[in-house]
Structure formats: structure tokens, C-alpha cells
Amino acid sequence: MSNQYKWINLSYLESIAEGDESIIEELINIFLEQIPEFTEGVDKSFTEKRWLELAALAHKAKSSVLSIGMEELGNRDLKNLELIAKELYVREISSKDNPDIKEIETSQQLEKNLRDYDEERQKWVKTHASEETVASIIDTFKTALTKAEEELKSEIRK
């Protein structure tokens, strides 16, 4: 398999498959099957302002894109999307007149988790937590997935 791609790097898949190209192809196909779930899911979650669902999808997608070597997309963009979605949920619950106990507890847990990050990251999330930032990250994510999909399909046609 080749690592001469702009969007993907299959080194990790090659290492866990120990060079077995049939396993690598199977893992690529699994990733390709996930793309609609990710793209449609983030669009729907964002449109419906379902912030916890969006955070969970970003987290799941992060693992998948990292497996095909999309380090920046996973470790920066999707991590930021996950954290911003959590912050937007916290803000939504804090502005509600009568949140239920589950919403309050979830919000408190998310706030606690967000405080586990260094001050600079916390400040960045609070400053950038907006629907505009979410839309921009989603656009970046979907564009990168389209490019990765092209490269992965060319890899399995070899």
C-alpha cells in the first residue's frame, strides 16, 4: 500500500494489519461505510441543535479518521467540534427556565470535564463556542472526508 496521499496515511492500518492487504481493504471499506453516518449525522445534529449527539458523533468520527491517518482533522478539528458542542449544551441548559435533573447533572459533568483541559484550551472553547464555528468545522470535516474517500477508493482499486 502507498502512503503517497495528501489526505490519508495508511501507516497505522498497515501496522495493525501486519501488511495483510485484505485486512487493510476491509478496514478501509468499514471506514467508507461510516462516511454517510458521519456526514448525515453531524448535519442533522447541528440543524436540530442536538449538541450532545453532535459531540458523540465528533468523538466517534475522531477515532475513525485517526485510524486512516487524518491527524489534524481528528486531533484538532473533531476534538474542537466535540468540545464546542459540549459547551453549547452547557450554555443551553444554563439558559433554560426549568431544566430537568438529568440535564442539570449532564451539564455539570460536562463543565467538570471541560475544566480538565488547560486554561488556554478552555478559553479557546468558550471564545469559539458558536454555531458559526460549528458550521465551519463541519464544512472542513465534510470536505476532508470527500477527499479521503477518493483516495481510499483509489487505494482499494489497486
Describe this structure in words.
This protein has 158 residues and is mainly alpha-helical. The protein has one domain. The termini are close together. The model has no long low-confidence stretch (mean pLDDT 94). Keywords: Coiled coil.
Give the strand tally: 0
Question: In the residues, how many domains can be counted?
Answer: 1
Largest sheet: none
Shape: elongated
Average of per-residue pLDDT values: 94
Q: What is the helix content?
A: over 70%
- Number of DSSP helical runs: 7
Fold blueprint:
Blueprint (H helix, E strand, L loop, with lengths): L10 H6 L4 H27 L3 H17 L3 H25 L5 H15 L3 H10 L2 H26 L2
Helix pairs in contact: 2-3, 2-7, 3-4, 4-5, 4-7
Keywords: Coiled coil
Protein name: HPt domain-containing protein
InterPro entries: HPT_dom_sf
